Amino acid sequence: MNNKSYLVKSIWQICCITHAAYRTHICTNKWRFGL
């Protein structure tokens, strides 16, 4: 049970980091190309 919670927490954290990086990348591109 504890191992499963840790795994889910890790996956969630990775997803959050990836999503934040993805959004930042889009924002940077919009600013760069003036869209």
From TrEMBL:
<protein>
    <submittedName>
        <fullName>Uncharacterized protein</fullName>
    </submittedName>
</protein>
